[in-house]
User: Fold this.
Amino acid sequence: MPEGVKMAEGVWRKNLAVGEKMMVCRVWLDAGSVVPLHRHEHEQCTYVLRGSLRYRTGDRELVLAAGQALVVPSNVPHGVEALEETEVLDTFVPVRTEYLDEEAGAR
Assistant:
């Protein structure tokens, strides 16, 4: 199991860098794991380091593979299914302060 905060069954997150207005997180997903549809005020960019995801955003569904990225605008519903063991970088603007609190509690 990767270090960090368990977000869902088979999904973990580690905050890597936090600035005044943005943050970068590393996320590990087991094959078949799901992050259900959700929305938040934060603009999000997901970059796939390895593996692949079925990404649902707004009314689109697409597969992202290693080396590909996607931007999700603020308040647009989105969710993912890991098609294989996958690792991504998620960047959020503004900072997701709830992620700071969760990680502090996991230490």
